[in-house]
Amino acid sequence: MPHTYIERIRWTPQFERWEIGFEAFVAGDRQSGIQVKVKLSIGCMLLVNDTYEVINGEIHRRIALSDPGIDDYRNELLWSPEKPTLINAQVQLWADGKLLDEVKSYTAMRTVSIQRDRFMLNGRPYYLRLVLDQGYWPDTMMTAPSDEALRHDVELVKAMGFNGVRKHQKIEDPRFLYWADVLGLLVWEEMPSAYRFTPKAVQRLTREWTEVIDRDSSHPCIVVWVPFNESWGVPNLVEAAAHRNYVQALYFLTKTLDPTRPVIGNDGWESIDTDILAIHDYDNNPHTLAKRYGPEVQLADLFDRGRPGGRILTLDGHPHQGDSR
Predict the structure, then answer these.
(1) For residues 153-169, average pLDDT
(2) Could you give the C-alpha distances from 74 to 20, 68, 78, 112, 171, in angstroms and in order?
């Protein structure tokens, strides 16, 4: 590495303002007059060519793009599974007319949100068709045998008609996320659960989950964060206030570190704070499922009486936000 270098960068698209948030952190020898040059382009089309002064080793900027205006032209610049348009980025570090460091990166114009009872992609309702992906490999278990294997995994998911995956109890290799970005695959990123609820487990999981968000938040493919799954690591949510407090703490910590994506506090059941009430029901009888979740079922009855796996869906005192939706 050079004596002064780009330590890390972060991209945050802002669809509503047609802007891209850019953060850069410079490490190594501190010197005055350091500048960062940012060039953004799609193919041969130049979007941005800006220069920023580095102050206290950091840059925090919102890069405004020219608003295309007409929907048809906007759609050409938006990232989605059907059209995964990436914005190429060149980031250079300069001082006294000398190039100190250079990295190539990418971002995308993409936004996700929840609007009443709909998942929204780029401001429009989008139907999620996901597969539960545990990320195992026949010969190498949790580690992919090659980069080509990771790409093929993404291609197989799309070939089977899915538009996304929920990575289950695994923080995936960044190359998987890269191919999901390039090929167009939505990802719910889920934290592996602790085996028990202990002070050490709380400290470790909180630290590692923070590192996960910091490492992966620039990937446009990631559309939902899932810190807990099916009360694993917090098995006494109904009785233990400490367990409930911890789920709430990680939900709000995640929303603080990344306010641009939905967060599921505890995926599956025993919901406290969440942006999506996810129900894990393992009954394989379609008639039973229709009886539980059909159009004639009232939401209040579902939340209060539905107990897939013997678990209540929402905890007392913590109804689903906007349960009238």
Answers:
(1) 97
(2) 15, 5, 7, 16, 32
Per this entry, what is the length of the chain? 325
pTM, whole model, 2 decimals?
0.93
Say how many C-beta atoms besides its own lie within 10 A of residue 288's C-beta: 12
pLDDT at 322: 46
Residues 137, 144: contact at Cβ < 8 Å? yes
pLDDT at 36: 97
Strand partners, 114: 119
Contacts of 252 (CB under 8 A, 6+ apart): 273
Residue 106, burial from CB neighbour count under 10 angstroms (0-12, 13-18, 19+) = middle
Q: Beta strand 58-64 with 19-28: parallel, antiparallel or unpaired?
A: antiparallel
Percent of the chain residues topping a pLDDT of 70: 95
For every residue of 79-119, DSSP letters joined together read: B-SSSB--EEEEEEEEETTEEEEEEEEEE-B--EEEETTEE
Classified as helix, coil or strand, 148 is helix
Instruction: Report whether pLDDT(316) > 90.
Output: no
Q: In what order do the strands lie in the sheet with 58-64?
A: 4-14, 19-28, 58-64
Residue with tokens 């089977």: 160
* Amino acid (1-letter code) at residue 234: V
The mean of the pLDDT values for the chain is: 92
Q: For 176-180, 207-211, 276-280, which range has the lowest pLDDT when averaged over its residues?
A: 276-280
Q: How many CB atoms lie within 10 A of CB 318?
A: 17
Q: For residue range 235-244, what is the model confidence (pLDDT) as tens digits?
A: 999 999 999 9
Return d(Cα 39, Cα 90) in angstroms, integer: 5
Q: How far apart are the C-alpha atoms of 109 and 12, rounded to whole Å?
A: 9
Beta-strand relationship, 164-167 and 186-190: parallel
CA distances from 321 to 4, 23, 190 (A): 47, 32, 21
